[in-house]
Amino acid sequence: MTGTTSEELLAAQACLRLLHTARAALSETASVSPVAAATLLAGPLAEADEALRRAGLAGNEADLIDRIYDLAPPPRAADLPCQERVPMARSCAREGGRS
Predict the structure, then answer these.
(1) Can you tell me the distance from the alpha carbon of 59 to that of 65, in angstroms, rounded to the nearest whole number?
(2) In degrees rounded to 5, what are phi and psi of residue 60?
(3) Helices (H), 28-85
(4) Whole-angstrom Cα distance, residue 51 to residue 67?
(5) How far apart are CA 91 and CA 99, in angstroms?
(6) What gap in Å lies between CA 28 and CA 61, rounded to an integer?
(7) Beta-carbon neighbour count of residue 1 at 10 Å?
(8) Cα within 13 Å of Cα(5), Cβ side
(9) What is the distance between the alpha carbons of residues 5 and 19, in angstroms, rounded to a whole number?
(10) In tens digits, what is the pLDDT along the chain, a chain of 99 residues?
């Protein structure tokens, strides 16, 4: 990881839980009513808001995305085409540029 504090890590994890809950709740629109979906999302949304506030990431989407990328393991070199096996910074990898 690149200097991610424990509070930032907790915030990134809370946001990922919110994302997964939202995907699950909203993918079943035929069987989950909007009211039920809102009820399912209320807890994870409040948790993510509080975690972002504590980490100082509320309103700072760029830093939040960097912390979320820090949670993902880097791709294995064997999984990349030969021309992409040059080391990259995560921010450059997202933007498609080389470091």
Answers:
(1) 12
(2) -120, 75
(3) 34-55, 61-71
(4) 13
(5) 9
(6) 28
(7) 11
(8) 11
(9) 21
(10) 457 788 988 998 999 899 999 998 888 777 888 888 889 899 999 999 999 999 988 888 788 888 778 777 776 766 666 555 445 445 444 445 443
- The tokens for 44 are 């994870």
- Distance (Å, whole) CA 63 – CA 96: 18
**Closest of 57, 58, 42, 44 to residue 15, by C-alpha:** 44
For the question of whether the overall pTM of this predicted structure is more than 0.85, the answer is: no
Match 């993918």 to its residue by tokens: 27
Euclidean distance between CA atoms 73 and 29, whole angstroms: 32
Query: In the numeric block, which tokens belong to residue 25?
Result: 């709740």
Note the residue count of the chain: 99
Are 44 and 18 in contact, with CB atoms under 8 Å apart? Answer: yes
